[in-house]
Amino acid sequence: MRYIVAIAVTLGVVVLVNLVFLWVAVSGADPVVASYLTESR
After folding, report:
1. Residue 15 has what pLDDT?
2. Residues sharing a CB contact under 8 Å with residue 33, sequence separation 6 or more, in sequence order
3. Full-model pTM
4. SS3 for 1?
5. DSSP states of 18-41 as a string?
């Protein structure tokens, strides 16, 4: 039973980390990523 709780907690942490990265990308808080996406390579 304990491993089920561990899997659930791990999935929750993964979802939270993904939401944080998504929020940073949408809010444009990282100018390096923004310039990397907009400028020609």
Report:
1. 95
2. 25
3. 0.53
4. coil
5. HHHHHHHHHHT--HHHHHHHHS--
What sign does the CA torsion over 18, 23, 35, 30 have?
Answer: negative
Measured between alpha carbons, how far is 12 from 7 in angstroms, rounded to an integer? 9
pLDDT (tens place) for every residue of the chain, 41 residues total: 899 999 999 999 999 999 988 887 777 655 566 556 666 65
How many CB atoms lie under 10 A from the CB of residue 2? 6
| In the block, residue with structure tokens 């996406």 | 37
Could you give the C-alpha distances from 36 to 6, 10, 16, 26, 29, in angstroms and in order?
37, 31, 25, 15, 13
